Amino acid sequence: MSDARPSDARLRTWRHHLHRHPETAFSEHATVDYLAAVLGGLGYDVARGIGGTGAVASLTRGTSRRAAGLRTDMDALPIQEVEGREHGSVNPGAMHACGHDGHMAMVLGAAAVLAEEGGFDGTVRLVLQPAEEPGRGAQAMLDDGMLERFPLDVLYGLHNLPGVPAGHLHVRPGGIMASEDNFTIVVHGRGGHAARPEAVVDPLVAGAEIVLALQTVVARNVDPVRPAVVSCTGFETDGARNAIPSTVRITGDTRSFDPQVQELLERRIRELATGVAAAHGARAEVTYTHEFAPTVNDPEVTARAVTAAVAALGAGRVVGDCDPVMPSEDFGVLARHVPACFALLGNGTEPGRGGTPLHSADYDLNDDILGAGVAFYVAAVRAELPTP
C-alpha cells in the first residue's frame, strides 16, 4: 500500500477545475457532471438526482455488508471573487469562498486511493451533497430516500478551518459545530412628526431597548458552561429624517449545541421582545425559524476517527478533544440519522496561505492540505471496513 496520497498535481487539477466553475445551491449541475465523470472512471456506480442535484457514488469490495460514507458539500457562495487568481472563478457572482472545492477534491482523492489500492471490505459510499450553504441540501437528500436506497453504517465529513495550522486535524465527541436559528422581530407603533414625539408610540425606542435586552439572554439565562450566542444583525425602520417610524424590523440569529438551550433562547427572545414593546405601548411580532441542526459527533465513531487520524497524520497533528466552534454545518442533519464524525482540518494561519477567513472574496483553500484530507479519509474508511 502507498501512503494513501495521490499526487499533488492530480489533487490540484481537480480542485482548481472545481474552483474555476463554482455553482450555487441546487444549481450544481456542471459540478456533479464533473464529479460523476471522475468517479465513474474510477469504477464507482454513481446515482444522481437525489435531493435535486445530489448524488451518491458506491464501490463494493469483498463480502462485508457494512457501508461507510464520505460526504462532501458541493455548492459555492454568491460572492464575486477578487481578480488576478490563475484558477479564479469564471462564473460571475459565484465563488468557492468556503473551500467546498477542496472538500470535493479530497473525496475524489480518497475515492481514487480506495478504488486503485483497495484495503477495505464492504461498500464505500460518497455522498455528494448540494446546498450546504443555505442548510437545505442534506434534508433534501434524506427526503428523497437516500438512506433507504443507500444505507450507511457510519458517515464522515470535514471542513477546512483557517486559523489552524495547515494539515492539523481537530475533532471532538459531541457537539462540534453549532445550530443556527434565525429570528425576526417586527415592532409596531404609531408614527408621526419628529417634532411631536408625545403624540406617537415610538417603535424605534422600543426596538433599541429590545436589542439591548436580548444581550442579557446568554449572560443571565443560559448556563455558563453551555455555549450559546444571540446576535442582532439588522435594524430597519420605515421612518424619515423628520418622521418617527411606524414599524421597526430587527433581524438576527442564535447559535447553540443543546436542544434545551435552543428552546430557552427562543422563549426568552419572544418574552423580552413582546414585554419590552408592551411597556412602550407598542406591539411586537416574533418569527423564529430553525435553519441548521447542531453537528453532534458520535463518541464511538469519533474515537475511531482519532485513531485513524493519528495513524494517517501523526499524533502531533491531531487534537482529539478540540473546542467546539459556533458556525453551523448542514452535516448535522445527516448526523441525526447515521452514526457520524465531522472533523475540522487546518487550512493555515497566515493570510494568503490559508489564514484568510471563510466567506471572504479573497479566500482560497490551501492546496497543501489536500493530501492530509485524503489520508484521513482513507484511514477512516479502512478502519470502519477492515479486511479479514
From TrEMBL:
SUPFAM superfamilies: Bacterial exopeptidase dimerisation domain, Zn-dependent exopeptidases. InterPro entries: Amidohydrolase, Bact_exopeptidase_dim_dom, Peptidase_M20, Peptidase_M20_dimer. It comes from the Bacteria. Residues 183-273 form the Peptidase M20 dimerisation domain. Signal peptide: none annotated. PANTHER family: METALLOPEPTIDASE, PUTATIVE (AFU_ORTHOLOGUE AFUA_6G09600)-RELATED, PEPTIDASE M20 FAMILY MEMBER. This is Amidohydrolase.
